[in-house]
Amino acid sequence: MSDNDVVSGTFRALVESADRKFARVRDVPAYGRVHNQHYFHKVFKAYMRLWKYQQEKRSKLIEAGLNRWEIGEIASRIGQLYFGQYMRTSEARFLVEAYVFYEAILSRSYFEGSNSSSKAFGKKDLGVRFKELRFYARFLLVSLILNRTEMVQLLAERFKALVDDCKANYRETNFKEWRLVVQEIVRFMKVDTAFMNVRPLRYSTLFDSHPSSLPYVARFHAKRVLKFQDALLTSYHRNEVKFAELTLDTYRMLQCLEWEPSGSFYQKRAVESKENGTFIDHSGASAASGVIDMNLAADMTDPTLPPNPRKAVIYRPSVTHLIAVMATICEELPLDSIMLVYLSASGKAGRNNVTQAYNSGGSHKSSKNKVPLPAQNNSMPESCINNKGESSGYYDQYLWFGPRGNGGLSNLYPGDIIPFTRRPLFLIIDSDNSHAFKAGFTWCGKRRDSCSVSFTFETSIQEPS
């Protein structure tokens, strides 16, 4: 067995080992405390070993038949791992690391080495094209969250051209889903244009006062100072503007709850377009000419800023799933912390859907105590009646989390959130029916002296479809 065969065999073994470890953490939810954190360290360690090995043995691996797209696939997987860690922890250093790897793949044209336009088409080439499409979609999402608007525009152009090329060269394959992704990013960029070239949504030291210079906010409790560490962001609208599973509402809230990095590492520079169509971003480690550094323990944080709160971003959840996520976060919330919940959904202000909810079983509520039919007002629980003998409205109005024709199963009532007010809660209702929650929780705030509940009410502006 030649030396190249040994190197190639070792490389394949490392790839299989890393992929097995990746499969164990790929589907871990992005909310709740991760109790098996050592699995994440294992998968990062496996890819660090794999990445270092292919760098040291690059020439022999190429002689043994290694394709450039295989290197790009490894780098793309590493970027995916970093982005997953960012979504679980909200630490900006993971997001920047993902950008560094994705930008290196683009600038070094790892996937273009096997471009199908230069040779006969085949199933293997089609598989590589799908890998490249997934890479562009993930890189677009990372660049979007990082506010790299120039890169987003360039990537969108390249992504659209790639989809068009795939449609032309692989006519027997349906690329409808990828065409929809192209439409999503184009629409997202068009709607978000008003926010371009202005100050960032994030708290920025360039435009805002430093946190240490701000006056203290009034305490929620006389003997408690609460820390903001967890947030739940979700929206459910018909024809809402989105990219992947990030809607425009949650995208803007996501950034409003983060600090704009101000350290020298994060300084943005212009993205240049070369004549051959490749892009160069003169920032981060990608400016180096040879090696992409991978260091999970690297100190890339900005010491002048507090950590970002952890944010669970859920795309179009069912009511039961939303309540389950809220319960998970609330159960694991530290005693000195407060949870922010942002709900953006449509409602039916002024209309009562009680009969429909009663006939369909309601939203996990019993017909005796939780559906306020006129004949049952006398049997309502004491917590649902205020000191004037009137219904508190906990189950009169709702937000609509679901498709048409699903009845009360898709209705989120103010009463569904009451159990979570046992812990400090900051609730934002972005809806045309937000006043129903304000009315319902005004009484709750008076009855529950031990909980701190704050409310901000907005009316969501839906973009045209």
From TrEMBL:
InterPro entries: SCAI (IPR022709). It comes from Prunus persica. This is RGS domain-containing protein. PANTHER family: PROTEIN SCAI (PTHR21243). GO terms for biological process: DNA-templated transcription. Residues 358-381 are annotated as: Disordered. One of its GO terms (molecular function) is transcription corepressor activity.
